[in-house]
Design goal:
heterodimer; A: alpha+beta; Trefoil (Acidic Fibroblast Growth Factor, subunit A); six-stranded antiparallel beta sheet; 24 helices; B: alpha+beta; 4 domains; 14 strands; 46% helix; 12% strand; elongated; membrane (chain A); transferase (chain A); ArnT-like_N (chain A); EC 2.4.1.109 (chain A)
Chain lengths: 825, 724
């Protein structure tokens, strides 16, 4: 109670200047010490004018501070964030004031009453609420103005627009594609393009291509719109966590004037969408935490379900959305844990709480997430560039694919002509051709490879191992191939048998070579393979497309597999096929039959083979995860390392290289970023000082107590957010880029805002005996705001585009601003 | 003063016969017939070569672990008088007579044997009964996988030993915290904790998991200490400082000490030199040092140098050129400048020599006195054998079309002017006026016209480029990367004016003299960095397994097979112990969760003094299992069953703890308790029986008939070798 109200007063003093000259005048009349006294007075007067002035939402925190004090002395120290919510579920307001007073200590309490000041002028309260709205509107306006300024520049493709714009077009054209990210973000981009009149005809071939007459502003505008909303969201989040307008304002300024966030928001990228959902989830979580004293009320449900919706959104855009889920999950768990520990709640109530969270934070997001995939698969029903990444069964769904609506025999029989596809992604079909392995590489026999494209050399005939009679002879009965049969695979074009022997494979030295051998189908016992279906019983028939088969070489006992390595020139840069003596079940050694021609069998429509939706979901995820893992950095390439990011070591070139180009360079505003970095260090320092002081049982004055709670709890949530959005990248093996850090920047900027406000308040408080000390806070915040705005003035060409000489040249607008040699603009 | 004269000298010995007996049987089980089999068993083939290197004091680089473990094994060899002369090339090869098999295997066996009494001590220090403590020790004693692993020249048993030692000494320390803080024994155990932790890390990087666990527990205890308001602030500060020194500073120092000794021992150059930087190589006896010894330090105009790429991936190589030119048209139809090729060549060759030339002068000799080249100077590089100048221009490189081609300039084509000025950028300079130094300086060459940087792309050229590696000019100067940085390896001052003389000079070996040594920290950081980044080709292995296979013991490793009979050694656990240890972990987790939930609702099922003990036992034992097991799910390297053994040891410690807890707190009547006791005895008997049945596969001392072997194959996934 103490701290919150005091902060509100100071907040008005610092931020409401342009709106309330009267308030300012009044504030100026109070010398420092008297101010303090006045603020300390409030616990004794629960219904102060300020209390009802800031009705509802703002009255709550005044209860809170006292409550926090109680909790801290309790047995169970409140966990970050959760304590806030958990504590408020026992609104024993009556005891609150007295307990707070006890926490503060009798001496302070009496001092407070003794210094009881006059009440604030009643006229000021009329402007309070509109003032706050006006401030929010101002912040929003600023953010929209900066994001939409020169949005149409440059009128060519920048950086990854080439991917995401293209994928938006795919949605409009309904062609199937493959991407390593979940579909929601690209669907939204596609939708925005569709609504703004983009027809999907632009090719998005490579960065630098001119858009010309194509309408691209709708898609950019959509991203910029979401990017602009980040700032009011951050503003509200910090306001909710700290109950301090200057802190929120500082945060908003940090983000508005950060050239990095600005640049990233202005193009057709997934990041603004991702950050939008992350921030929205954070905001709704914080809001819902502050509704915790009214569980199951309408706003409580609203914010809880909004949290769930936004989590689904974040995960639906990129898998890094998982990090915000971790944070919300942690918050929810500690919240539930405190509810559970509250003996005044019955188990039934706790159960209801649990059920509500399961419903809103697990079931709802999962349903929405699944729904995005359902829409994705429904929209993309035409064959496109992504087909090859998916299994044969999956491809059968896509119109235009040769498997679509095809009708082929369902079960494999002797004499069938088939193609065999590797289960591993992007490996292709078992292939052979009339070229021999070169001298010195195993036996000089015909090459066997895998090949991604469909041609006649992928066709094989299944034959019995012991007879050479033509199974297609109409007089013979149809004989199906069964699991465990010993077969021979004859290459249709060259009539050589699939063969293996004890020679080392061309690239993978520990495996055996696979060749084509024999003349007109007559070979030797090294041509015999046992066909096995994974997870099937002996004697089962083998289904086209659906059965996952392994071919085991009878003589050596090895398994036919593809190593995925590219053969040199002599192998036409197709992929190596080996016979591996390691019998582990890996995707390398699993195959399935795709095309199947057998005139003796009735063709059936492939529709019956269509995989179910859960199977499609699962496959799409497997392919995405493998695609993500496949994005490995190559040797001898400069890659961005996670430790580069917070120090703003290196930017990303969005557009243009030479001095005649229109250049955009993604780089954080160094002033903002370095301030953020410093703030994290300062936060850790001050946070641990407070934590140790509390643990040592030090008696803090009420004001400091309140501030330390804001710092430890509100700041703790933000720090956690920064950590979960940053540290996991150190563990990732995939290739990383600078822009991966931006979700973490949001959190660290919010932390900076909160921290500096709190520290300046502490400063003002500790200097209270000096005259003018009350202004330390105001001046500090103002100078920070001005400094940030000035740095933006300096660095804005990075985002809005530079033309002319490079930064080394003194005539350049960026001359002298290349503070680190690693920035190349 | 002379107090000892007035009072009798009394020695009171407090001998715990349990510990003595456990030590004795531990030694017996691990040391019995230690020198058998007299053949290379499994990974001995891998560690043995390093022991040989130590014996011969030849430098090597092994990315699998820090040097302390290797040094321990080498110590065994040293004590046994091993001369290092054995060719470690094949598992199963007979040891020659000069190999002291017994003493090579002694230290791991001792470590394994001492783990038995330590298990006893740990459970006792955790506050559980002697009975539970003896149980834990006996389980460790009869666990077949632990026996196998500690009887061979392998590192896991040493790792387990130091893990247990760290936990034990931390427990001793925290127990003496209550009655005698800052007493000698308090200090002793505290410091021993730190030392044991760093030894564990020094044996294998895996030890870091246990170190973090101990640090975590220590941090929680320290946090409670801060909250203890009976202590003065100063005292709290002293406590914290003591812990910080013992658990953070000392381990780092000890770890550095390992490397210091390692580098002290390995002073001769050897087969792995090439991976290290030139400066490091020059610090070893022989090898590069023999060549570079006595080279002039400062590169001057007119110097003849070879330039080695610092990154050295995929192979270490030197900037190279030769008479051949780039083909006019590449296979994919793109054109080239048809100028002389510049490549990176992984072998020493006379064509690797370049002459640093001042663009303003024509001579290729060094002035007297030599004029050194400094950071920021503009130079030309002349290829020694062909006297062409290093050049790059706006032509796409053969394999990396986004980069510029680098060539030695020939004026075939007048439309393509020479662009052969390079600005020298010393990366590791201390000031902007630094002189370019042989070996020590890492330099980049920035092309003056296009600001491209000379870089090794690493792609091997096709046949026309003799499969040498491609060198390109990279336009985007994105920060520091080793592939764009070069260092001078061989260097001499050019003296000859004429090309013929110069060629002769280039062919002759370098001489003169200065010696330079890197500081220990520089050598340490380079070696550590290379060890962490050296790429082991992740090959498949017949006996590799996944972490999921370990808990259920779905896999084994055949270590050795007798050349004639069917006697064989397998890494194969006692399945009863594995299953019940996993079960105990599960029971612990469930019970702990249950108690935790009950306590949150203020229902305390356990007595107040029992709860912290239960939590601490769980934190150390179940926690020790988790931290030593879970990280493997995130590792991409080839994994084997023996990686699970440290985790298993902790899990086994938890087993008697859980049993005692069940008996004390969950069995309500005396009858239940007796019944439970009987069950435990029966269970233990079965564990002993299984251990005894698997004994032939553990010690490999008895040849089994095929039917006996088949009978031992309890799981289909076990690979037991049966001679046909």
């Amino acid at each position: 109670m103490l701290c919150a109200t005091s902060r509100l007063l100071a907040a008005r003093a610092a931020t409401a200047l342009p709106f309330h000259p009267r308030v300012r005048g009044r504030e100026l009349h109070f010398p420092g010490p008297r101010c303090r006294g006045r603020e300390l007075h409030f616990p004794g007067y629960p219904e102060t004018p300020l209390g009802d002035l800031l009705a509802g939402r703002l009255a709550r925190p005044s209860v809170l501070a006292g409550r926090r004090a109680i909790l801290r002395r309790g047995r169970m120290p409140p966990a970050v964030g959760g304590g806030l919510a958990g504590s408020e579920l026992r609104p024993r307001r009556g005891r609150c004031g007295s307990q707070a007073a006890r926490a503060v200590g009798p001496a302070v309490a009496t001092e407070a009453t003794a210094r009881s000041p006059k009440r604030p002028a009643p006229s000021s309260r009329r402007f309070e609420a509109p003032g706050r709205w006006a401030l929010l509107a101002l912040v929003t306006l600023m953010s929209f103005a900066t994001r939409f300024h020169r949005l149409d520049q440059p009128p060519h493709i920048c950086w990854d627009e080439t991917h995401f714009g293209k994928m938006g077009s795919y949605y409009i054209n309904r062609t199937f594609f493959f991407d390593v990210h979940p579909p929601l973000g690209k669907m939204l981009i596609g939708l925005a393009g569709y609504l703004s009149g983009y027809d999907g005809t632009f090719l998005f071939q490579k960065p630098g291509d001119k858009y010309e007459h194509h309408s691209y502003l709708g898609m950019r505008g959509f991203c910029a719109f979401l990017g602009a909303l980040l700032i009011p969201f951050a503003y509200l989040t910090v306001l909710e966590l700290s109950q301090s307008l200057p802190a929120a304002l500082l945060t908003a300024a940090l983000l508005t004037f950060d050239t990095g966030c600005l640049t990233l928001s202005q193009y057709i990228l997934l990041d603004p969408i991702l950050m939008f959902f992350i921030m929205a989830a954070m905001l709704s979580m914080v809001k819902y935490n502050s509704c915790a004293n009214r569980p199951f009320s309408a706003p409580w449900w609203l914010w809880l379900s909004l949290t769930g919706v936004n989590l689904a959104g974040a995960l639906g855009v990129k898998f890094v959305g998982l990090f915000i889920i971790l944070q919300v999950g942690w918050n929810t768990l500690s919240d539930l844990w405190h509810l559970f520990g509250d003996l005044s709640l019955s188990m039934v109530t706790v159960g209801k709480h649990l059920a509500a969270r399961v419903l809103c934070l697990i079931v709802l997001p999962l349903a929405l997430y699944t729904a995005t995939y359902a829409v994705h698969f429904m929209v993309l029903n035409k064959s496109g560039p992504g087909d090859g990444f998916f299994s044969s069964a999956f491809q059968a769904r896509l119109s235009g694919n040769n498997l679509h609506n095809a009708s082929i025999p369902e079960h494999l029989a002797y004499g069938s002509v088939i193609t065999v596809k590797s289960a591993r992604m992007a490996v292709g079909y078992l292939h052979s051709h009339g070229h021999l392995y070169p001298e010195g590489i195993g036996a000089r026999q015909q090459q066997v490879t895998t090949y991604l494209h469909k041609d006649y050399n992928n066709l094989w005939i299944i034959k019995k191992h012991n007879t050479n009679s033509d199974p297609l002879d109409p007089s013979l009965p149809v004989e199906f191939v069964r699991h465990g049969d010993v077969i021979r695979l004859e290459h249709k074009e060259t009539s050589r048998n699939l063969h293996s022997h004890y020679h080392e494979a061309p690239l993978t030295r520990k495996h055996y070579q696979v060749t084509g051998y024999g003349i007109n189908g007559t070979g030797d016992s090294n041509d015999f393979w046992r066909i096995e279906v994974v997870n099937r019983k002996f004697g089962n028939r083998i289904k086209v497309l659906r059965s996952r088969i392994r071919l085991i070489h009878l003589v050596t006992g090895c398994v036919l597999g593809s190593s995925g390595k590219v053969l040199p020139k002599w192998g036409w840069e197709q992929l190596e096929v080996t016979c591996t003596p390691y019998l582990k079940e890996t995707l390398n050694s699993i195959w399935n039959v795709e095309d199947h021609i057998n005139p003796k069998l009735p063709n059936i429509s492939l529709d019956v083979l269509q995989p179910s939706f859960p199977e499609i979901m699962l496959e799409a995820h497997m392919v995405m995860i493998r695609g993500n893992n496949g994005l490995k950095p190559k040797d001898n390439e400069f890659t961005s390392k996670p430790w580069h990011w917070p120090i703003n070591y290196q930017g990303l070139r969005f557009s243009g290289i030479n001095d005649t180009d229109f250049r955009v360079y993604l780089l954080g505003n160094p002033v903002v970023w370095w301030l953020n970095l410093l703030s994290i260090a300062l936060y850790l320092l001050s946070g641990s000082i407070f934590a140790v002081a509390v643990q040592r049982g030090a008696c803090l004055p009420a004001e400091v107590e309140g501030l330390s709670q804001v710092l430890l709890q509100g700041g703790g949530q933000l720090l956690l957010g920064w950590m979960v959005h940053y540290f996991p990248f150190f563990l990732m093996g995939r290739i990383l880029y600078f822009h991966h850090y931006f979700p973490a920047v949001l959190f660290s900027s919010m932390l900076t805002g909160l921290l500096w406000d709190t520290l300046l308040r502490l400063c003002a408080w500790s200097l209270a005996s000096f005259p003018l000390a009350g202004h330390v806070h105001t001046l500090g915040i103002l100078s920070l705001l001005l400094g940030i705005a000035y740095s933006f003035y300096l660095f804005h060409p990075l985002a809005y585009g530079m033309v002319g000489p490079l930064a080394q040249d003194p005539r350049s607008p960026m001359a002298g601003l290349r503070w680190l040699e690693s920035w190349d603009f | 003063m002379l107090g000892f004269l007035q009072r009798p000298v009394v020695v009171t010995a407090d001998i715990n016969l349990n510990v003595v007996a456990l030590t004795a049987v531990g030694l017996l089980s691990r040391l019995w017939q230690l020198a058998y089999p007299r053949a290379v068993v499994f990974d001995e083939v891998y560690y043995g070569q390093y022991v040989s290197f130590y014996m011969k004091r030849i430098f090597f680089l092994d990315g699998s672990g820090p040097p302390f473990g290797h040094m321990l094994l080498a110590l065994g060899g040293y004590l046994g008088g091993f001369d290092g002369n054995f060719l470690w090339n094949r598992i199963g090869a007979e040891y020659s007579t000069n190999v002291p098999v017994w003493s090579l295997r002694l230290l791991p066996a001792l470590a394994g044997a001492l783990s038995v009494p330590m298990a006893y001590q740990i459970v006792w220090e955790l506050g559980f009964s002697h009975c539970a403590a003896v149980g834990a020790a006996l389980l460790i004693l009869i666990e077949n996988a632990l026996i196998t692993q500690s009887r061979l020249m392998l590192l896991e048993s040493a790792l387990i030993f130091f893990n247990l030692l760290a936990v034990l000494s931390y427990l001793k320390f925290s127990n003496s915290q209550k009655h005698g803080p800052f007493s000698p024994s308090w200090w002793f155990w505290l410091i021993l904790t730190g030392v044991a932790c760093s030894c564990a890390v020094g044996v294998k990087y895996m030890g870091v998991f246990t170190y973090l666990l101990v640090l975590g527990v220590a941090a929680v205890h320290a946090w409670h200490l801060i909250g203890d308001q009976t202590l003065s602030n100063v005292r709290v500060l002293c406590h914290l400082l003591a812990r910080a020194v013992a658990l953070l500073v000392i381990p780092v120092l000890v770890y550095l000490l390992f490397f210091y000794v390692h580098l002290l021992l390995l002073c001769r150059s050897g087969p792995h030199d090439q991976i290290m930087s030139s400066a490091f190589q020059a610090s070893l006896e022989g090898g590069l040092a023999r060549i570079t010894q006595g080279q002039p330090l400062e590169v001057a105009y007119g110097s003849q140098v070879t330039l080695k790429n610092v990154f050295g991936q995929p192979v270490p190589c030197w900037l190279h050129s030769h008479q051949s030119t780039y083909p006019v048209i590449y296979e994919n139809g793109r054109g080239s400048s048809h100028q002389q090729q510049v490549t990176c060549y992984p072998f020493k060759d006379v064509n690797n020599w370049w002459i640093v030339k001042d663009p303003g002068r024509h001579q290729l000799v060094v002035n007297n006195p030599p004029r050194p080249v400094r950071h920021g100077d503009i130079v030309q590089l002349v290829h020694g054998m062909t006297t062409r100048l290093l050049n790059t221009h706006d032509v796409a490189a053969p394999l990396s079309p986004h980069s510029q081609e680098v060539s030695c300039y020939i004026d075939y084509n007048v439309s393509m002017p020479a662009q052969n000025l390079w600005r020298l950028d010393i990366v590791n300079r201390e000031s902007d006026t630094d002189v370019w130094k042989t070996i020590l300086s890492e330099v980049r060459f920035v092309h003056v016209n296009t600001s491209a940087i000379l870089k090794l792309s690493g792609a091997p050229l096709p046949d026309w480029g003799f499969r040498q590696l491609e060198v390109v000019g990279e336009q985007l100067s994105r920060g520091y990367h080793g592939s764009a940085v070069w260092s001078v390896e061989e260097h001499r001052y050019g003296r000859s004016q004429e090309q013929k003389e110069r060629e002769l000079e280039l062919h002759s070996p370098t001489q003169t003299d200065v010696s330079r040594n890197l500081s220990f920290m520089a050598r340490f950081s380079e070696l550590q960095w290379r060890m962490l980044t050296v790429r082991s080709d992740d090959s498949e292995h017949k006996y590799s397994s996944t972490p999921l296979d370990w808990v259920t013991l779905d896999t084994n490793i055949a270590y050795w097979l007798h050349p004639r009979t069917s006697a064989q050694i397998h890494l194969l656990g006692n399945i009863v112990i594995w299953a019940s240890a996993s079960l105990a972990t599960l029971v612990y987790a469930l019970l702990f969760t249950w108690y935790l939930f009950r306590r949150q609702r203020r229902a305390c099922d356990l007595p107040e003094d029992c709860w912290p003990r239960w939590v601490l036992a769980g934190a150390l034992c179940a926690g020790g299992w988790a931290v030593n097991y879970v990280p493997f799910f995130m590792m991409e390297k080839t994994l084997f069953l023996y990686h699970y053994l440290p985790a298993l040891t902790f899990q086994i410690l938890l087993l008697p703890v859980v049993l005692e807890h069940v008996s004390d707190h969950l069995c309500r009547s005396q009858l239940q308790r007796s019944l439970f006791g009987a069950l435990v005895v029966a269970w233990f008997a079965s564990a002993c029986h299984v251990s005894n049945t698997l004994r032939p596969l553990t010690y490999g001392d008895r040849s089994l008939s095929p039917s006996e072997l088949k009978a031992l194959r309890w799981k289909d996934s076990w690979d037991i070798l049966i001679r046909k």
